[in-house]
Amino acid sequence: MSSITPEEFVHTAKKFIELSDKFFDSWSFHQNDNDILKTYVKKEEFVNHRDEGEKVFLYRAEYIIFYNLSYGVPSFSFNIWNSSGTLLTLEEVRQMSLMKISKEDFYSVITQQEHPVMHRPYFIIHPCNTEKILLYFKHTTKNLIVTFLGLITPLIQLNLPLEYGL
Amino acid sequence: MLKSEEKKDIIQYVPFMSFVHPSFWHSLTEMKLNVDKLNESTKQVFGRYSYRDDTVSVFEVDGTSFNTNPEIELHYINVTGTLMNKNTIEDFKNIDKASLINSVGEIMRANIQTKSWIDNPNNLLNFFILSFADLKKFHYYYWFAFPAPSQPIVCLKEKCQNISTYFNEKQIKDISKSFQVLETTQKCFFAIIKNNDTAEVVKLSKILDKNSKELKINLTNTFFAFADHSNGPNPGWPLRIFLAALLDFCPNLSKTTIQIIGIRCSKNGSLTSSQIYNITVPEGVQTPENIGWVGWERNDRGNFGPKLANMSASMDPVKLADTSSDLNIKLMKWRLVPDLNVDVMKNTKCLLLGSGTLGCHVARDLLAWGFRHITFVDNGKVSYSNPTRQVLYTFQDCLNGGKRKAEAAADNIKLILPTVQSQGLNLHIPMPGHPIGESLKQETITNVKLLTEAIESHDVIFLLLDTREARWLPTLISAHYGKIVINAALGFDSYLVMRHGISSVPKETSMNSSYVSGDQLGCYFCNDVTAPGNSAKDRTLDQQCTVSRPGAAAVAAALAVELLVALLQHRLRVKAPALYNITDEDIDSELQGVLGPIPHSIRGFLHSYQTVLPTCTKFKQCIACSQVVINKYREEGIEFLMKVFNSGTYLEEITGLTELQLTAEMTEILTFSDEDQENTDDA
Ligand SMILES: [Zn+2]
């Protein structure tokens, strides 16, 4: 079995937060005592985008890793918004290359849907390939979420500290 | 000359840029709808800014801003502020912004004068949000203000310097350590006292005595400090109010150089990028009797004016439903059928003639495929027997004599997806061999006109009627306008789904061709050699839907919509060829569409779970789509139609079918003998 249990996810998430704290990477842990499936880790950061006219725009990006029950794997979701709180569309995100993704991969892997934990629209990376790949790492990796983020980085530029050992 | 140099040194504060988290608007909306309603009283809100050296000068509010207590976050200063949400856009526009900020300022000035800020320095910080929430459109107009007095005007004695020019490494570490343990409410404004080899952070109340106007401290080794959101050479906005308070408390400070440290911290908590500002207070530029308050934020165009947050895409449930259902289609394209044209469904207008079992199922399947223009035609009312089979209706629609079907269907489909464009046309379709009395003549003419206009203004005509005769007029009019026609008919446990060709000029198809060009395909009546008359004869198809197996309508409707979509996705659309043998393994890709080969007709039998796909060409003497009939219609219009309605044999005469009667009877006998065989098997 390549999937992990919700308990394993929570355990891994806690260990991941310890690493993040150590490397000052500002991921935070959010637990729901009533519902283990609502546990997630989150990071927010400001990102800059310079348009053709060299004008700099400021955006805030939020990344959330939560447990996907159907696939039994961590799932990655994100949103990016401007200073008024308006979410960017997927096409805007893609065109600004805030995230480095090819057009085909982008649309086949990322979709906007209601977030199972946050109950608001988020971009969610489809987990169908995660399961297969995580299988290779489940017993060898020090932290599955770190490995998972390593899988995501070709799709999304996350500026992860090198100390994670990706 | 001297004056301009002086001016250059006047301190420039780095303003805050408001940055709103989407959850702020969610919380505000919830509060407005469930708690405040029409109450317009102001509300306490929290905001925060960071003194991290790697973040921009933003002031943030989010969903937690409305909590009773602010969330504590590392390297952030919480600020208590006020939200004034107006009920109308007029109130929002018309309120006097200058007097609003001044009235907030006067409260702040009173606070300064009570000296309460010495014990609670957090009290010096303040912000204000003026807003108007258009909750129908999910548009939020808002304007932030960070009030500060326009006076006193102070100058930078020299460019800011890094903290290391005044403090050694050990002293900076001392400061970091004691700053870390300082209470969160004291972190915004405090003091740092430098000793020989050490430095310590002290609360303002330690060095400022509320009962004395004099400072009992040595200003040469005392630095006033504030959490500085700026990353550049100029200090952050909070210093402005801090200096105003300090100078109000001790006017004598203006006679000396005031040493200020702007605390800036790196992600690991080190304060090595903090800056030192040496401040002097020039004489003669102060006008204390006329102090106003400033601090309205500039908008994205650089003007003093409100900003707009258009949150409809992520908050309007109607938009969310629309984009989410579109997503299903897009996922098909992105993951499985890259050549799928998503827009063609959105832009194709469908006319559903018949809003019964077939019509309801077809409408739902169209919706699922992303169609957004659906018009219903029917002349019936919803009766108690309908809702279980006719999936758009509910019990409620049957009450009080029943709603008109076409209108109920249009209303109910909007309950499923509010963005669908749908309407109902309540009209009876006149039929050949059903004579029109004088009393109904005018109404019939009107109905023909309405039907003609409806067909003309739609792209696809679905024939989902429950009698064969009713299909004749729409078949003819659609052929005249060259519209795509999808026809579905039900028997007890059999169904027929087919598309019509459009060309009224039949071409000879070569006998050994493997397909028929789409425009040459026959219509529903081409296969029949009898004209539709008002006959009581039992037929296998087109009986009342209520006597067919319920699944037949669902299957037929689904196939009808799939057939249409396959056609629309084909490069040749209505001209897409129909193969004689669709089960061939190597079908030329030219003959297929994005979704595969497209049959002419599908005939299914639930009894044996069999499906056959007959393909046939146009019949030269067809009573609905042949040249002679269409020409008659074009020449004589309603006169011709009236003759057809009033006579059971007129169509057969003009098409020459009468002469073919003998052959027709032969065919019928042959057909029935097959079915008789089946029926015997049944028994
Ligand atoms: Zn025909």
TrEMBL record, chain A:
Organism: Euphydryas editha
A single cellular component GO annotation: cytosol
Origin: domain of life: Eukaryota
Protein name (database record): Ubiquitin-like-conjugating enzyme ATG10
Record keywords: Autophagy, Transferase, Ubl conjugation pathway
GO MF annotations in UniProt: Atg12 conjugating enzyme activity
Similarity remark: Belongs to the ATG10 family.
Biological process (GO), any one: autophagy of mitochondrion
From TrEMBL, chain B:
Listed GO biological process terms: autophagosome assembly; autophagy of mitochondrion; cellular response to nitrogen starvation; piecemeal microautophagy of the nucleus; protein modification by small protein conjugation; protein transport
Keywords carried by this UniProt record: Autophagy, Cytoplasm, Protein transport, Transport, Ubl conjugation pathway
SUPFAM superfamilies (alphabetical): Activating enzymes of the ubiquitin-like proteins (SSF69572)
Chain ranges of the Ubiquitin-like modifier-activating enzyme Atg7 N-terminal domain: 11-315
The THIF-type NAD/FAD binding fold domain, residue ranges: 332-580
Pfam families, sorted: ATG7_N, ThiF
InterPro entries the record matches: Atg7, Atg7_N, Atg7_N_1, Atg7_N_2, ThiF/MoeB/HesA, ThiF_NAD_FAD-bd, Ubiquitin-activating_enz
Principal cellular location given in the protein's record: cytoplasm
Domain of life according to the entry: Eukaryota
Stated family: Belongs to the ATG7 family.
NCBIfam families found in the cross-reference section: E1_like_apg7 (TIGR01381)
Protein name: Ubiquitin-like modifier-activating enzyme ATG7
Species classification: Eukaryota, Metazoa, Ecdysozoa, Arthropoda, Hexapoda
